[in-house]
Amino acid sequence: MSAVGDHHLALLAEQAYERHGDYESLFFEGRWLTSREIHDRSARAATGLRSHGVRPGDRVVVLMTNAPEVFISYRAIWRAGAVVTPVIFLQSVPELRHILTDSGAVAAIISPELADLFAAAAEGLSITTFVTGYSVPKGLVSFEDLEAGEPAGIEPRADDDLAALLYTGGTTGRAKGVMLSHRGLWEAGRGLELASRTSAATRSLLPLPLSHAYGLIVTIAGLHSQRRLVSVLQRWFDPAGWLELVAEHRLESSPVVPTMLQMLLAQPPGDHDLSSLQTFGSGGATLPPAIRSAAEKVFGVTVLQGYGCTESSAVISAESLSEHRPGSVGKPLAHAEVEIRDAAGLSLPAGEDGEICVRGPGVMLGYWNDPEQTSRTVRDGWLHTGDIGHLDEDGYLFVVDRLKDLIIRGGFNVFPRDVEDVLLEHPAVQVAACVGRPDAENGEEVVAVVQLQPGQQVSGAALVEFTRERLARYKYPREVTVLDAVPLTSVGKINRKAVRDLLSTRE
């Protein structure tokens, strides 16, 4: 049997509790939970998982809206030596069934409102299912029963054993399982926490889905903190509720994705006192400069960007209050070595754009059941992210765009982000997405869709003219379509595949 590794995530949680002791650490929907309650409940839930046959290395799906039981479940699963397999609740039945069958999950912990979805996806599968709340459907086990036993110790696991299996969004095909180790997540969380130490903020609002890599790494970073952190959790992001919670609890920071910032900017602050707010941490997608500038002006805060992907244990670089530069996503964190490489795999000098490649303990163990895709993505220990960017002379990382989203019009490279940033400078535009459309003359044509600010009106033709005056002739979109809502992924990123599909049906 392997020993409890120094980077075991259950040990990290245990050490955090021993370091800080018992205090009110988490607020959710009208109730405070103490650090002791979370610790004890997770230790008891680990016993429950073992008694229901969950063994070290088994995958346990967590399909929940944000709730304290997500924190408890993650720690319990790691304590039992099993593998956290988080699933964002905005899934279709076929998508969820693929994850259940592909992962070989033996158990699942679900929210009651997702019981019907789960039942349809898991039909015919042998998965022990635990459900939170008071109304437990027939055949399922209540989370209360899961916590009924005596606290369990930590099941030994090695540092490089599998800790989490996260499925990518699948916007370009079937979702792939990304294998992340205890050490990888431990190191990535520590790197993010070290970057955050320049801020004095200890009270934060968590609107991110905890089932996403970004939300997961924020919680792990918190376990590394040398300070007592207080978190207020939203079940799901709600701009009006966000404002109320910040004002009520005098919160100082909040990790968000760019579309959340856009929605907050569209939400009138009213009489809410937001003077306690100091920083936003922005990740999950590239932050348009216009949105960053507006957020800093409206909320009187500093917006700190970070960058990473699921395959890198969620984070590669991040800004801090002592080291931040407009337009950058910060410097690579302590656990990540970054190189910019050309198409031939050669390292490029500062200032030149190429593919962002990263090496270090945070790099995934591989794709679950897919050695061929693993070998294409991780070569000689280097993760090829598929993102285009550059490092400046001082080591700050700048992300330009996704390699697969690059538009080649008449032999010229067009980065969608360049077009989107200009569209977002128009006061009527709230969200913008740019894609390439097949074109007989130019190979690809630059087209875009936008979602307008509430109460605003502008024509697509006027927006074409607006960009034509601000972009090179080969870059500006020849067509801009105004939509009621620009398609987003389940975590708030622009879903460019859905945009392409939508525009193809309008031809």
TrEMBL record:
InterPro entries, A to Z: AMP-bd_C, AMP-bd_C_sf, AMP-binding_CS, AMP-dep_synth/lig_dom, ANL_N_sf
Gene Ontology BP annotations: fatty acid metabolic process
Record keyword Ligase present: yes
Gene3D superfamilies: 3.30.300.30, N-terminal domain of ligase-like (3.40.50.12780)
Record domain AMP-dependent synthetase/ligase: where: 15-368
UniProt-recorded Gene Ontology molecular function terms: medium-chain fatty acid-CoA ligase activity
Record-annotated AMP-binding enzyme C-terminal domain positions: 419-493
Alphabetized UniProt keyword annotations: Ligase
Tree of life domain: Bacteria
Matching Pfam families: AMP-binding, AMP-binding_C
SUPFAM superfamilies according to UniProt: Acetyl-CoA synthetase-like (SSF56801)
Protein name: Long-chain acyl-CoA synthetase
Source species: Actinoplanes lutulentus
